[in-house]
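Researcher: Please predict.
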Amino acid sequence: MTALTMAQQASLTAGAAMWRSVAIPEAGVPSLHMSDGPMGIASGRVDERDVARLSPCATALGASFDVALIARVAALVGGEAIRMGVDLVLAPNVNMARSPLAGRAFEYFSEDPLLTGLAGAAWTRGLQSTGVGACVKHLVCNDSETDRDRMNAVVDERALREVYLLPFELCAGAGAGAMLTAYNRVNGDWCAEHGHISTIVKQEWGFDGPFISDWFGTHSTAGSLNGGLDLEMPGPARFLGAKAVAAVEAGDVVAERLTDAAERVARAARRWSGPKSAPREDADALLVEAAAAGMVLLRNENDLLPITPGRHRRIAVIGPNAAAPCYQGGTFAKIALSPDAVRPLEAIMARYAGVAEIVYEPGVDPQPRLPAMPVQPVRGEGQGMTVEYFADGDLSGQPVGQEVRNTNSLVWFVGVHEQGVFDRPAAIRASGWFTATKDGAHRFYVGATGAVTLTVDGQPLIDQPERMAASDVMGSLKRGDAESAEMRLAAGQRVLVEVVFRYDGARVHGLWYGVRGPDSAEAMLARAVEAAAHADAVILMIGETSDSSVESKDRPDTAIAPEQRTLIDAVCSANSNTAIIANIGHAFDATWSDKAAALISAWYPGEGFGPALAAVLAGDAEPGGRLPVTLARCEADYPALSLQPDGQGDLPYEDGVLIGYRGLQARGTTPLYAFGAGRGYTRFEWLNVDADGGDVLVTLRNGGDRVGSEVVQLYRHVPEFALVGFAKVVLEPGRTRTVRITPEPRLFRIWNGRDWEKPGQRAGLSVGRASDDLPFTTEVTI
């Protein structure tokens, strides 16, 4: 790098475009092409037409407790990156599921730092086995969304190192390509300017990759460089780039720091723009396997599950998520799912075809927040709205561009989209023909990051004149709040829906809309209860929509939607042979679960959801997951719940190292379903638990008549209760195996305020199948 001029070095510290770093061909420094993750390769355009493979969410992968499987899934994502020309993926996300209210909790592997770290490290190794780099995010304590770009996480040093930095440390040990700094502050300093954190990562751990800012997450020039930031994204530069030269010349930044930043960026660019090799594994089969491996069977009274084909003549599939499943949350890393993905209802009908009658009723509205906009374009081919782009706010002239978009949510980034003008005031018109299928009141919805109006057949229904402040556009976009109004339509009536969106220049803009038909809640519930009452068994699929878990907004509580709770009560009263499938991406209130015979937590299982669920229900596959988060009996039992910063922007991490199940155990609080809990369809006998120096040996026998898995878990008790190791064991019926588990050494060190220390030479461990089911004890050398 000494051959580069200071100006060239400075140029490497800022992106060239939204998803690309600067290249210096004459110095052999290529451009690094990046993309968001982690559930797949997100479209840089946030476009529903850029279809990619969708893997299970991190919580579902964490629930598998299977690091080898996680690595295989990440390698599949690497293959997608190669197909789409991506060198570096912004993933894995190894923030912590500290509170069940976190809006982005579905992207977190667990509430436990060891499980999170080992899963993140496995994901890193799997992705990078293809030659694609992993940029681990978000460093650090970006564990919530409320005011995430202003809030200050106040966390003590021991918790910071032992809990929140540990997953990043394990990923760094796995050779991660880069680290993405978070939007928030930690103990007063912006993460993009945090010299203390960068010193730990770069000097104590020896991490040689670049620190990259989260998009638009920088605040200054000297502060960023001196705090350890190496690459500001996106480009063009705001604070770094050419401004770094002036900072060095003014003496605000030493030249060696600029050289170090440039070297880190150049090294990463050379490394990850090199040869790549996609895995040859069957992607469809792997995504189904991974979806089933993360499903957690929490309740199964009278062995209702599996519902072996031929056991029941009439099965009622009820619930909104059977036909409209939730595959992912609403982030900028949202994957455009293939329209050919098999929904759970379709898969269940196919699996039981010829052996059982399947009846379906949604029971409640499957799109309670923002419904679809099923229209025909006014101009252009296909389905969806005709979207016209204008160079200014005057719509009387000719549009500068036009396309047909079959989606209810549109996003545009400056410099990414060919259509439209977004860096100055302009306008968009979206229009389409809607045909009513029923008589009655239809409710139309619209929302935007600027001024917006909606008319139906020329009749104004919604006029929202406010224009969002540019500083709040990103948050407004992902919150997706919409206005609504009703109009009565007759069945068969065809009306013109027109939306006009006027906006000021901003880095990103969005527009969303939809229409809801007149089916009443009472009628939907009555049909569902009728179907349940006349069925031999019920599969009740409840859960979320993709706008339930979003960036920039945390949830108000852990409860499922009130109308779904009513549906559970009514259906379970009508038929006691009900299995509930919870399609929810985070910890949730499950106090209603005793009303059903069975409960499976399916999380957001990716595009293999339908076939995987059908296989699990029929007994072709096992629900292989264990809880990676605690489900408490009440919200007050969670060690951390509220994510609202105080008036100064501070969010105290008062739980310290007692995160999640650790805090419940310390207080003697019994969970509803414990961390690590879950069961399969077979029965395991634990024959022996012993220690061999620093390892634990566990001998298991599958005493059932099905192949199945057990997750062996090791917990320390000093200084606090905590997971220190685990292993997933798969056995055929009647087979016996001894598994050797080496506890993670980092879990036996304690930060004393100045340095790491061990509490002794030996450690007592409890061993079992869940954090509340630990019948064995042993002692290991540490």
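Model: The first helix runs from residue 6 to 11.
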